[in-house]
Design a protein that fits this description.
By secondary structure, the protein is an alpha+beta fold. The chain contains 7 helices and 11 strands. The termini are far apart.
Length: 302
């Protein structure tokens, strides 16, 4: 075999070997790369930041502003304790300001969301929260006559876990000039159409309607604003059975209603609970419908 023939043969072998390795190795790598599925980018969910409202109020040259505040759990009107030192200091500052300025009032607006459960006696959970803060301020020496309470729907509130950070807003203002006339009108309205709670036979349970919740709010407001004011809670029964047990049953219902009002922030010292048993029916006891109307507790204002 000549040298030229040998060189040609080696070149042919080199070409065939290169083609073989390309087909078996490189082309298979390319095919696997082409067949590999495209991975889609995954966007992590964005968790909204919890809202936080400050313990802040101002009036002319007087101001107090701290990021801490009263906190509440979702669907609750009970203040979470303990309070921060900043809030405690703010309460002391507010107390001094209102004591020195008898014509001023602090307005408390409690926030709530429409998807919260309201187990309070008030029309909405915001008002119940404001009432809880009012009671705490009163316990710390602020006069209830210088506190106004309101509720406001705030559906853009975001909880931190199961807790709302400071769902209470504050503003200072002037006391209403016609407050005395307004309270007299409120008393007359309540007494003309009292809060009436109905009970099943031998039972003492309370389930308030929207109208009844508003009456509780009005009664609470009157008792806060009028010095020395109180309310009467009187239990009544039908005439089934002997009078003495019925009087005791009526007293039990009155005491139960009083306890319910106290649990919802009305001072026990402002509630007089008594019983008239079967002595003051509003309907005939001859029918079941009439007896049901007579099994009641009425709340009026003094």
């Amino acid at each position: 075999m000549t040298k030229t023939t040998t060189n040609l043969l080696l070149m042919l072998i080199t070409i065939l070997a290169g083609t073989y390795f390309y087909i078996t190795c490189c082309s298979s790598c390319g095919a696997s790369t082409a067949e590999e599925p495209v991975k889609e980018a995954v966007t992590a969910p964005v968790t909204p930041e919890a809202t936080s409202y400050p313990f802040a109020f101002s009036d002319g040259e007087y101001a107090y502003n701290e990021n801490d505040n009263y906190n509440f759990n979702v669907s609750s009107s009970s203040i979470l304790m303990p309070l921060s030192q900043k809030v405690t200091d703010g309460i002391a500052s507010l107390k001094s300001f209102l004591a020195e300025n008898a014509g001023k009032v602090i307005n408390l607006t409690g926030y709530y969301k429409s998807d919260e459960t309201n187990d309070s006696a008030f029309p909405n959970l915001g008002l119940a929260r404001a009432n809880a803060v009012k009671n705490h301020l009163v316990e710390n020496g602020v006069s209830s006559t210088q506190i106004n309470t309101m509720g406001k729907l705030m559906d853009d509130m975001v909880a931190k876990g199961e807790m709302f950070l400071g769902p209470i807003a504050y503003s200072l203002g002037d006391a209403a000039a016609d407050a005395e006339d307004e309270m007299k009108a409120l008393r007359d309205k309540i007494n003309a159409n009292p809060l009436v709670l109905y009970f099943e036979t031998n039972q003492a349970s309370i389930n308030l309607s929207a109208e009844q919740r508003q009456k509780v709010a009005d009664i609470s407001r009157y008792l806060d604003k009028v010095e020395g004011a109180s309310c009467n809670v009187v239990g009544h029964t039908d005439n089934v059975g002997r009078r003495a047990p019925n009087v005791r049953l009526g007293q039990g219902r009155a005491d139960f209603a009083k306890s319910y009002l106290v649990q919802n922030g009305i001072a026990a010292s402002k509630i007089n609970a008594s019983s008239k048993g079967p002595d003051s029916p509003v309907e005939s006891n001859a029918t079941e419908a009439g007896r049901a109307k007579n099994r009641r507790t009425e709340v009026t204002l003094n």
